[in-house]
Amino acid sequence: MKSVPAKGQNEFPIHRVDILNWIIAIFFSVLAWMYYPGMIAKSVLIGGLVANISYLYLKKDLKDFLQGKLLHSGKVKTAKIKFYLKYYARLTALALILYILVSRHIVHPLGLLMGLSVVVISIGITMASVVKKFYFTAKEA
Fold first, then answer.
1. Other C-beta atoms lying within 10 Å of the C-beta of residue 56
2. Stretch (H or E) spanning 49
3. φ/ψ of residue 68, rounded to 5
4. Residue 89 pLDDT more than 60?
5. Is 8 exposed, middle or buried (0-12, 13-18, 19+ CB in 10 A)?
6. What pLDDT is recorded for position 69?
7. Fewest CB within 10 A of the end CB: N or C in the chain?
8. What Cα–Cα distance (Å) separates residue 37 from each residue in 31, 44, 58, 62?
9. Listed residue (95, 141, 118) closest to 31, CA to CA
């Protein structure tokens, strides 16, 4: 699932975010197992898994929506409604899962938050590398 290249080099490497998500989740989990109690380490791992799985489903739905499976059917309004219904259903399920995990003390809230931040961190790192590449390429030209 590599990003579809736009004209020229101005594309966001979404495949890099996918790989970086898992690398950072594993890295944070290993660090947590080394330096924190088992409850926090388990929470970091669970948070990373939840964030990555949620990200992958959102990416799939966005790709289906934007690249035409839904839009090319000729019913744009229906496609939008279907996308938003799936999005909010997934968000509700995610909120329920997180509530159950925290309320039943299955995970530590701070460890879970660290694991959930994996996707945001990987997108930030990827954006910084894209901006750096674009800035230095534009400056040389």
1. 14
2. helix 38-66
3. 110, -15
4. yes
5. exposed
6. 63
7. C
8. 11, 11, 32, 38
9. 118
Which of these, 131, 106, 96, lies nearest to 39 by C-alpha position? 106
pLDDT category of residue 3 using cuts at 50, 70 and 90: very low
Phi, psi of 4 (to 5 degrees): -80, 125
What is the C-alpha separation between 35 and 47, in angstroms, rounded?
17
For residue 1, give the 3-state DSSP assignment: coil
For residue 128, which amino acid is it?
A: A
Which of the two residues, 78 and 111, has the higher pLDDT score?
Answer: 111
In whole angstroms, give the CA distance from residue 83 to residue 73.
Answer: 14
Residue 18 CB partners (closer than 8 Å, separation 6+)? 1, 56, 59
- Reply yes or no on whether the pLDDT at 137 is more than 70: yes
Start-end of H helices in the chain: 14-35, 38-66, 76-103, 109-116, 118-140
pLDDT digits (tens, 9 = 90+) for 8-48: 556 778 889 999 999 999 999 999 999 999 999 999 999 99
Residue 40 corresponds to which tokens in the numbers above? 């926090």
CA gap 56, 15 in Å, rounded: 11
